[in-house]
Amino acid sequence: MRTTPPSPIANRAEARREQILEAALDVFSEKGYHEAGIADIAGKLNIGHGTCYRYFKNKLDILHALVDRILLGLLEVVRKESPEKSNTIEEYRNQIKNIGWELFQLFSKDPRQAKIVFFEAMALDETVKRKVQLGIDKSARLTELYLKNGVKKGFLRKELDTRIASQAVNAMMFEGIRINLSSKVDSKFAKRWLEEMPTLMLEGMGKR
Amino acid sequence: MRTTPPSPIANRAEARREQILEAALDVFSEKGYHEAGIADIAGKLNIGHGTCYRYFKNKLDILHALVDRILLGLLEVVRKESPEKSNTIEEYRNQIKNIGWELFQLFSKDPRQAKIVFFEAMALDETVKRKVQLGIDKSARLTELYLKNGVKKGFLRKELDTRIASQAVNAMMFEGIRINLSSKVDSKFAKRWLEEMPTLMLEGMGKR
Amino acid sequence: MRTTPPSPIANRAEARREQILEAALDVFSEKGYHEAGIADIAGKLNIGHGTCYRYFKNKLDILHALVDRILLGLLEVVRKESPEKSNTIEEYRNQIKNIGWELFQLFSKDPRQAKIVFFEAMALDETVKRKVQLGIDKSARLTELYLKNGVKKGFLRKELDTRIASQAVNAMMFEGIRINLSSKVDSKFAKRWLEEMPTLMLEGMGKR
Amino acid sequence: MRTTPPSPIANRAEARREQILEAALDVFSEKGYHEAGIADIAGKLNIGHGTCYRYFKNKLDILHALVDRILLGLLEVVRKESPEKSNTIEEYRNQIKNIGWELFQLFSKDPRQAKIVFFEAMALDETVKRKVQLGIDKSARLTELYLKNGVKKGFLRKELDTRIASQAVNAMMFEGIRINLSSKVDSKFAKRWLEEMPTLMLEGMGKR
DNA sequence: TATGAATGAGCTTTCATTCAT
DNA sequence: CATGAATGAAAGCTCATTCAT
């Protein structure tokens, strides 16, 4: 349900923006932000590089827009499930699996996105870095809601430090993605990771 | 047992190298690799910037040396404890606590190091990135030895995917450090993290 | 006596030209020719900047047209009085006063014009510069007619080098305007200048 | 009598600066500040253009340094004569002649300087413009001292508005130089101008 | 061994101008 | 006629690296 009717001209402009972002995603993730030149982006689209500056203030602005989009997608995934839904630990285990799976999907389908947020953006100017950290933090806060629900419903430990635990959960998730990115990992890794993680998180490594 | 007697001249040169690395650590971690200039490093030491090139091939070479040193320190910590030592889960819990503590120590004492390996180095050329990933991987392999010991001794789950689990453990550890770096976190955070982690890892979040 | 009846369509076009020139006057005098962009001019008129190119060949062409207009106005003022009119030195003094006053009026009413011809145009390509110099020269030639009349009528010195003197007169006039432009001069300055100039020119500074 | 012994190294650097300024004088006066590129300046000296940036912050900085030097030379000339020296109008007439002559000399010997201060600098950023105006103003203030001396000694009119008159004198002087620059003027012009000016200034154009 | 002057590749960015719509 | 998206030449500037001293 769109609120504004799609003006064709705005759409054209929007499409250009998208093209540029798409090309930038390619270039930045391949060569890295600093090595990449505006010319590379424009070159990929066979447009004059001046054109990029009609749609973005500068190179950094492109990255910002890119990061925004990626984080949006990330949060969308995390938000899809409802924190209150699970009533038993088994349901919860499934939720975890789902979210993990979706995230893996998201970043496996387009590893370029992961490269940007997990590697490039972290070494750049304070504002981008902060933006990503905020995004990750937000994701952790959402995760925390799940944990709190679990504690409330009684299937998670009462004394659980949900703040810490949510960050640990996030860390595992993202680390899995990071490792998955480093091409030298076999394709079954993701599957193993996804299967092992919920058990690890819920039951720990210790013998019962 | 040194194989070659320490020639004073080699020592002098070695000292210079150290100085430069120390200065580079400062500068790179503060301004970031790209923003930092060779001149900044030399400036800090009040030496001509040409001098840096007598001790290092180029700017990237300095970073490589820096990363080497940092990873060395990291592995040293992880190696300090012996994977075979623990015989009960309680001993193991203590080992984990120890290692975690030492790592926190290492990177809290000198957050510059963490900034370099966890942020800067990851956005640079493939060789540095790989080097860091290898370091982290090595750390995970070591961790895995502990886990295998645990499984063998029977205080960790028999079916534990030690490869995955070791990476998860690492992830939690490093995430803690990363979060700790983002200055806006209060000083008690480290303590909470360190206390919560072993339990999380061993018993998970689920209610027993 | 117009030769062609004013076609309404030509008038519309003419009006557009005028609008653009007016806007250009604003923009050029405010930001300077180089800092000003075609977009600024078009922006002021809320028209597409491509439109400017339907009325002018290029940016420089706009300046040329502007300078033409300004110089035209300048010469109009100088031409208003008739060089042959004065018969006594007192009449002449009044003529001078008048012309000076009108010029001050002209450029005080619209200092933007002065900024263009006296500052911007002089630092641009040879053709504009020459055009302005020619205009100033023409103004001096006119002034010279007055002087020649004065010599002929006997109220100016017989040996007066009218060529030089006319240029000196011009110089004083224009310098007054230039100084007046530099905002930090008080409003009474113009009055003092206008009053002092005729005496200076006619009687000099020396004691009689 | 130098206060500091001339360090050879400082001299070398100083020499480079001078070379660059000299080349810039050439280039700026020939092509105009905006048309001129740093590359042109460096090209003239057969040095890398980066070198210019070792000695000057940026392009504008070069112009500033240039203008400073020119204005210094200008003021030096004006300062050479002493305002209090003249006791009769004839002595004063000679002083005027001298100063005028020297200024003509200064700017005829190196018309490039005149082009910079009288044309280029006036169309540039506020700071340069102001600097030049200040220089010209300073020159007028000095001239005023001469006039005040003349009034005091009684060979200039008692009621003379010395402020205005000094500016008028300046104007004539500089206009002469400006006209002289426009190559199409014959070489005798300067001589005529210099001869006519003192009389004009002292006795005016009116018949006695 | 240490220096820092010199270098120039290479980047980002601007904006006058064109032209298809 | 009017538009403004697209263009790309052209410029300023930085800084890692070299090398004569």
Folded structure, characterized:
Chain A has two domains: 1-56, Homeodomain-like (Arc Repressor Mutant, subunit A, Orthogonal Bundle); 59-203, Tetracycline Repressor, domain 2 (Orthogonal Bundle). Helix content of chain A is 75%, strand content 0%. Chain A has helices at residues 8-31, 38-45, 49-55, 59-80, 89-109, 111-120, 126-153, 162-181, 188-203. In chain A, helix 1 (8-31) crosses helix 4, helix 4 (59-80) packs across helix 6 and helix 8 packs antiparallel against helix 9. The interface between A and B is large, with 48 and 49 residues. Chain A binds a DNA duplex (21 and 21 nucleotides) through helix 1 and helix 3.
Question: What attributes does this structure have?
Answer:
Tetracycline Repressor, domain 2; 2 domains; 0% strand; 208 residues; DNA-binding; Arc Repressor Mutant, subunit A; homotetramer
Set down the secondary structure blueprint.
4 copies of one chain form a homotetramer.
Chain A lengths: L7 H24 L6 H8 L3 H7 L3 H22 L8 H21 L1 H10 L5 H28 L8 H20 L6 H16 L5
Chain A binds a DNA duplex (21 and 21 nucleotides) through α1 and α3.
The CATH architecture name of the largest domain in chain A reads Orthogonal Bundle
| Rg of chain A, nearest Å | 20 Å
Distance between the termini of chain A: 51 Å
Largest sheet of chain A: none
Show the largest interface: A-B, 48 and 49 residues
CATH topology of the largest domain in chain A: Tetracycline Repressor, domain 2
Q: What oligomeric arrangement do these chains adopt?
A: homotetramer
Unreliable spans of chain A are none
Share of helical residues of chain A: over 70%
User: What is the mean predicted local confidence, pLDDT of chain A?
Assistant: 89
Q: How many beta strands in the DSSP annotation of chain A?
A: 0
Work out the helix count of chain A: 9
